[in-house]
Amino acid sequence: MAAHTEMTVQGEVELLPKLGDTRATPTWHEAPVVGNRHIADRYWALSLHAPTIAAVVQPGQFVMLTAARRHQATPVLPRPMAVYDVNLADGLLHILYGVVGAGTTQLTSFSPGEEMLCVGPLGRAFDLVPDTRHLVLLGRGIGICSLTLLAKQAKLIGVPVTAISSSRSPDSAIGSDLYRAHGVHVREVYDSDGSSHVQRLYDDLERTMPQEQSTLIAVCGSRRLLQMAGNLARSRGAQIQVSLEAHMACGLGYCHGCATGERSATDESPLICQDGPAFSYVVQETTTSSRFQASVSPSRSSPQSRSATG
Description:
- By secondary structure, this protein is α/β, with parallel strands linked by helices.
- Helix content is 16%, strand content 28%.
- The protein has two domains: 11-18 and 125-283, Nucleotide-binding domain of ferredoxin-NADP reductase (FNR) module (Rossmann fold, 3-Layer(aba) Sandwich), CATH 3.40.50.80; 27-122, Elongation Factor Tu (Ef-tu), domain 3, CATH 2.40.30.10.
- The protein is built from six helices and 14 strands.
- Helix 5 runs parallel beside helix 6 (223-236).
- The chain starts with 10 loop residues before the first strand and ends in a 27-residue tail after the last strand.
């Protein structure tokens, strides 16, 4: 086994370049539910007919779903959900969500034929730059759902993709079937057998990753995976993008409730819903910083609650 590498690298989250931001204007839909079923552990798969959103959504973007029906007063706030996949021919949005509270429990009660208020696409997408030659995806739990469209996009343009899907156990694993359907080499790792240990993953990736800046690492759902990505970027010269999490009330930037860091008297740090959720993650040579730090705390990276343990 390779020598132990201390996973304490520090980094700063920075805005992605505006040049690559080609997001479409969000639209509101009373979207018919096409399917809504339990798939594993606490996870459900929801399909909505929302062709206008499906046609323009980009990897890493999300939608806001209202769990209350027209005659219901609660839940008041919509729930942010990453777009897991799209079917352009049928105009379908596919969303995987984890049941963590009253709002997501309410979502499980929707049946095919009912309508659900859906707003999107929202947020800053990942930026798969033209000179990317290798894409590495590091996802944990529901965070994997923010990465699957990026894998699909990369394979469509011929970029090799390696995906690490981390979960508690095989019973709670999600996303690998979609990865494989897109021709992605995916490695499933679990807490239950120790295969998700970050040092082990680092050693394997450090041996196999090309040493060039044209490698992009995209991370979602785990602080430890983000730190591992930082070490890989430092040793292999890769670039990192991360999808961050926050509780959201509107998803449109109106409420300013999802700022990425501490506010000052004159300035507010970027909003995850509007300036993200995808950001660049730049590894620092020192451990101190006057700027806001990366945060992958439970609540949205794909915009849902999730484990941040690795």
